[in-house]
Design goal:
mainly alpha, two-stranded antiparallel sheet, 4 helices, 2 strands, 54% helix
C-alpha cells in the first residue's frame, strides 16, 4: 500500500489520497483532518504542506512504475541479444563463443 496524492482533490489531493489508500470516503478523512487541525493549534497545515511536497500524485507514481518496468524489459532485451542457446543442451552462451561451455557443441559458425 503506497500512499499517494489523488486526482479527486480539493486543494492538493492529500486527504483523498489517504482515503483511497485506507479505503474510506474522502469526506471522512477531510472532516477528521479539519477537526484535528483546529484542535491542535493548526499544526495540521504544516503536515499537509509537507505531505503535499513529499507524496507523488497517482499519475506520477504509476508513470514511475511503468518507466521502471519498461527500462527493465529493454535492458533484458539488450542482454538477450548478446546470448544464444545451444541447440544440443539448451545452455545460454555468449554469441562470441564458438563452443558451448556445457557440452562442447559448436554454437557459433
Amino acid at each position: 500500500m503506497r500512499l499517494k496524492r489523488s486526482q479527486n482533490k480539493i486543494i492538493a489531493g492529500v486527504c483523498a489520497g489517504i482515503a483511497e489508500s485506507v479505503g474510506v470516503n474522502p469526506k471522512v478523512i477531510r472532516f477528521l483532518y479539519a477537526f484535528l487541525t483546529v484542535f491542535t493549534g493548526f499544526s495540521g497545515v504544516v503536515v499537509y504542506i509537507i505531505l503535499t511536497l513529499v507524496l507523488d500524485t497517482k499519475d506520477q507514481a504509476e508513470y514511475l512504475c511503468y518507466e521502471t518496468y519498461t527500462d527493465k524489459r529493454e535492458k533484458e532485451k539488450k542482454e538477450s541479444e548478446n546470448y544464444q542457446y545451444c541447440s544440443n543442451c539448451g545452455v545460454r552462451t555468449k554469441k562470441s563463443q564458438t563452443f558451448c561451455s556445457n557440452c562442447g557443441n559448436i554454437v557459433n559458425l
